[in-house]
Amino acid sequence: MPDENDPSGWQAFASEYIRFVDEGDSSRTMLLDDVMLEECGNVDGQLVLDIGAGEGRFSRMLAARGARTIALDLYWPMVEAAIHRSAGQGAFVRSPATVLPIASSTFDTVVSYVVWVDVPDFRSAIAEAARVLKPGGNLVAANLGFITASPGWERSPDGRRLFRPVDQYVDERPITLSWRGHQVVNWHRPLSAYMQAYLSANLILRRFLEPVPPNDTLRASPRFEDWYRIPEFTVMRWNKP
After folding, report:
1. What pLDDT is attached to residue 4?
2. Going by C-beta distance under 8 Å and a sequence separation of 6 or more, which residues neighbour residue 3?
3. pTM above the 0.90 mark?
4. Whether pLDDT at 173 is above 90
């Protein structure tokens, strides 16, 4: 289990996570990036906050499209890596997502790229994201879907995927995962809990997606079979009236 000084496990995992990103996270590069960029729209000249930015990868993608970015993360190794890799573009803040050190109605767009699953108090994080948005601004959020309530695929004796069992879906609870030699804590919540948090923040849903590959070019590869059978992620665009 993660230790009492790092209950999430992310402080200890940060350096390994950065290596993982550098190796190329196909879920992002091949499945989610284009969807997230499309939902962010034309960011040229916009002020964009990237919550839980990690080592700043997506912030740099937005900056390359003309956005003025602020990358925020809770863990110093992430923030330091983001600063080092930024080539002078954007600003960087160490802060929890639940108490943003930012004035209300500041940003044109707020991004949460597979972050809520790591935040214990996700309701406060969503409320804060809504608070710092300008009226008319958008919150674009990717997150893990129902698979947080699934232990993985049931397989046939010869190893073929059969189905993914789901249990305790309605219960909000932490789940400790073993990832590249480290243990980190993710949080499972039913979709209804997330939806109610957005609605309680007075946001309006404009887009709801469960991304799948846009064509069949990867269908024959066992590595990507999951993507064609069960959506692993949700992407939502919420608007602040």
Report:
1. 58
2. 12
3. yes
4. yes
